[in-house]
Amino acid sequence: MTAVLLAIGMSAVPAAAQTFGARSAHHELKLLRIGEPPAFSYDVEVVDVDHAKSVLNTHLEGKAGVEAVAEHDGERILVRIDGWTKILTAKTTVTRDATIVDEFRAVWILEPQPVTPAPAAQHLDAAGAYRVGGDVKAPVVIHRVEPLYPDAARRGRISGIVIIEVVIGKDGTIKDAAVLKGLPDGLSEAAVDAVRKWTFKPGTLNGEPVDVVFNLTINFKLDAPPPSTPER
Fold first, then answer.
1. Which pTM value belongs to this model?
2. Phi/psi class of residue 108: alpha, beta or left (left: φ > 0; alpha: ψ in -120 to 50)?
3. What pLDDT is recorded for position 1?
4. What is the C-alpha separation between 111 and 47, in angstroms, rounded?
5. How many Å apart are CA 11 and CA 201, to the nearest integer?
6. Spatial contact of 48 and 55, defined as CB atoms under 8 Å apart
7. Which in 49, 66, 151, 180 has the greatest CB count within 10 A?
């Protein structure tokens, strides 16, 4: 079973040596970050909570995007650390026979952050448009533009789907769009920007082109990091 944890907190240890920790039901991550920007080093340990034993223990050098990996009793333990001045993230993944058996992600806020106000509710201008169903046939995309992946979302390892409700005009272009299910760090905005450039074979009513309301789903997926060489 996969466990997902989001831990948010601030370390009270001086910046020269900061300690962090996170755990799932089966594993605990212990992390010591040493140094000052832009150079950091990390002491990383993963403990198998069920058997009270250390399954990964290593030292890493690097500012961001560093990884630690170990093999233990048929399991592969991978810890990816992304560190910046204001935010530190760590993702721990345990796999066995190409199956994820445990996974958790921790995010630590290192400096006070302003509260981001909730986005205003979006309203779709769907006057005169039809909902797909019955005699109203769905539009078909003929030109698709892939969204750009914002740097902030990539650094934060944010992925998932954005659902956008759109009005597709009888000319096959997007007349209006509103986010029904969004993602942070600019992903919702990137999805809307891309979708507005799509073109469609328009929806029809009794064979005639009409404006229709339609939902589009944009899937943001991060490339998997390259496999690391197990420690010896």
1. 0.51
2. beta
3. 45
4. 28
5. 55
6. yes
7. 66
